[in-house]
Design brief:
The strands form two sheets. The chain has a four-stranded mixed sheet. It folds into four domains: 57 residues, DNA Methylphosphotriester Repair Domain, CATH 3.40.10; 101 residues, Homeodomain-like (Arc Repressor Mutant, subunit A), CATH 1.10.10; 66 residues, 2-Layer Sandwich (Double Stranded RNA Binding Domain); 79 residues, Arc Repressor Mutant, subunit A. By secondary structure, it is α/β, with parallel strands linked by helices. Helix 6 runs antiparallel to helix 7. 41% of the residues lie in helices and 12% in strands. The longest helix is centred in the middle third of the chain and has 18 residues. It has 14 helices and eight strands.
């Protein structure tokens, strides 16, 4: 059986470390099997190892593919490894996937699987499953399913689990009813950025949006909370002026916020709030600043779901070349906001 019998110590170390980034395959002469360096099977003796540049090369040399790490295809990139783990978690919302099972699924050790997933997503695999269930619960409730059906359809094994980390901001029954029983005070004012509307619960500001007209502004709040009791309160105009002051005057806002989202969304929104006035970042730069450089797309999705404009300044996100990218409330408004901040 051919293949490189003599190879760099770096190659051998990658096999010892089960390094998933290694770009080669290795065969074991005594077993006739070839594997990925990240394979969890017992490490071979160094003198029995042969190195191959591709799976095809190993097969041509007479080695058969390992049944554990399944090395026949192209080596997985870090991104595809995470995508594969995500797919497994998303397919099995009804049960907690152990790190051992997750590692076996992508041919990594428990430690490597956990590390790669958290680096990319900003959440542990378990936290990600919790977020998936919470998202499915919110979706089912909004579609009009009963609370009980929604709870079990989302993958919860007991109703008591629903109250642990779903971030609904209200009870499931209330959320199911589009906020029925929830009282939201609101106020609208016309500004040079368009019409601004604020909505506030007893816990704090839950909605701050921009619109072209007053009716559009109110409609945005009704869409989010279609059955809530909405009450106009002109005194909340101070909230609007405080929000504008954070943009135009650089004043830090101490307004209480009632942010509702998954654990990951909340983490991204908090990171947005830490971007200094007059500064901008790309999605990639924000992800790097958060310590999750491989999760640019996930960060972008979280930014797009921001419910509190200005105070959670997603307008400070620009393209990698500095160009204005899409903005939930319109690119022209984004330009005006950045100009006001001197960015």
């Amino acid at each position: 059986m051919e293949g490189r019998k003599e190879f760099d110590e770096k190659d051998w170390q990658q096999i010892l470390d089960r390094d998933s980034s290694a770009q080669f395959f290795y065969g074991v002469a005594t077993t006739g099997v070839f594997c990925r360096p990240s394979c969890l099977s017992r490490r071979p003796l160094k003198e029995n190892v042969r190195i191959f540049a591709s799976a095809a090369e190993a097969q041509q040399a007479g080695f058969r593919a390992c049944k554990q790490c399944k090395p026949e295809g192209v080596l997985l990139t870090n991104e595809s490894i995470v995508d594969s783990m995500r797919a497994l978690l998303e397919k099995n919302r009804d049960r907690n996937i152990s790190l051992e099972e997750l590692g076996r699924h992508v041919g990594l050790s428990v430690f490597s699987a956990q590390k790669k997933f958290k680096a990319a997503m900003g959440l542990s695999p378990l936290e990600y499953q919790h977020a998936l269930r919470a998202r499915e619960l919110r979706s089912s409730l909004k579609k009009g399913k009963t609370v009980t059906d929604s709870i079990y359809d989302a993958g919860y094994n007991a109703s008591s689990q629903v109250y642990q980390g779903t971030n609904l901001g209200m009870t499931p029954a209330r959320f199911a009813a589009g906020g029925r029983g929830e009282v939201i005070q609101h106020c609208e004012e016309k500004t040079k950025y368009g019409w601004l509307i604020v909505g506030s619960t007893t816990r704090g500001l839950c909605w701050l949006a921009l619109a072209g007209t007053k009716s559009e502004a109110v409609a945005s709040l009704k869409t989010e909370f279609p059955a809530a009791a909405l009450k106009s309160d002109e005194s909340l105009g101070t909230f609007i002026r405080a929000a504008i002051a954070t943009v135009e005057g650089g004043k830090e806002s101490d307004l209480p916020l009632d942010l509702r989202g998954t654990a990951f969304q909340l983490r991204v929104w908090n990171a947005l709030r830490r971007i200094q006035r007059g500064k901008t970042l790309s999605y990639g730069a924000l992800a790097k600043k958060m310590g999750i450089p491989n999760s640019t797309r996930a960060v972008a999705r979280a930014c797009a779901t921001n419910r509190v404009a200005l105070l959670v300044p997603c307008h400070r996100i620009v393209g990698t070349d500095g160009s204005l990218t899409g903005y939930r409330w319109g690119v022209e408004r984004k330009r005006l906001l950045l100009e006001a901040e001197g960015a």
